[in-house]
Design brief:
By secondary structure, the protein is an alpha/beta fold. About 35% of the residues lie in helices and about 25% in strands. The strands form two sheets. Strands 4, 5, 6 and 7 form a four-stranded mixed β-sheet that branches. A three-stranded mixed β-sheet has the order 1-2-3. A hairpin with a 2-residue loop joins strand 1 and strand 2. The longest helix has 20 residues.
């Protein structure tokens, strides 16, 4: 899994100063998560919009979730921390990993078709054993629902965790 810090593009009505602040908050949050021995930072995405930090991804335990959220809340400039983490432990077989990758590709393709979303990269997606996690920031509840509908329409999807935040 790639270690990624994903920032919201300045095209989402943020000023240049807010965007730079968000980038700084996101980088600091990711660095602090990496430093926390109780957190698998590689499985956690960090999104920041106007000082609001969202952590998303699959974690192995409630303890890991709590540690990640506590770490993010300590970051200077973080106004609020949104929990888009899903506790889902267990390892995947090679076949499940291939199935998840296939679902992930189909999902990103379907998200590019969601009206008002613009770019599918505006939404973080994770797939584990057929469970889909949607997170990030979008402009409206309609877009959030459309993204979930797109995910539910993909063969092999067992459950959708729609934790997208509306700006």
């Amino acid at each position: 899994m790639l270690l990624a810090v994903t920032m919201v593009s300045p095209t989402y009505a943020e000023t240049a100063g807010e965007y730079i602040d968000d980038a700084t908050i996101g980088s600091k949050t990711k660095t602090d998560l990496i430093s926390n021995k109780n957190v698998s930072a590689v499985s956690i995405n960090v999104e920041v919009y106007k000082g609001i930090v969202q952590l998303s991804g699959f974690v192995d335990s409630k303890a890991e979730e709590a540690a990640a959220l506590a770490t993010a809340r300590k970051v200077k400039g973080a106004k609020k921390v949104l929990d888009a983490l899903v506790v889902f432990s267990g390892s995947r077989s090679m076949g499940e990993a291939v199935d998840d990758a296939t679902i992930s590709v189909k999902l990103k393709t379907e998200l590019t078709k969601v009206e008002g979303l613009g770019r599918a990269i505006a939404i973080n997606t994770e797939v584990r054993q057929g469970q889909v996690l949607l997170a990030g920031f979008v402009d409206s509840a309609k877009i959030k629902i459309s993204a979930e509908d797109a995910a539910r329409g993909i063969s092999g999807v067992k459950e959708v965790h729609n934790l997208i935040a509306v700006k």
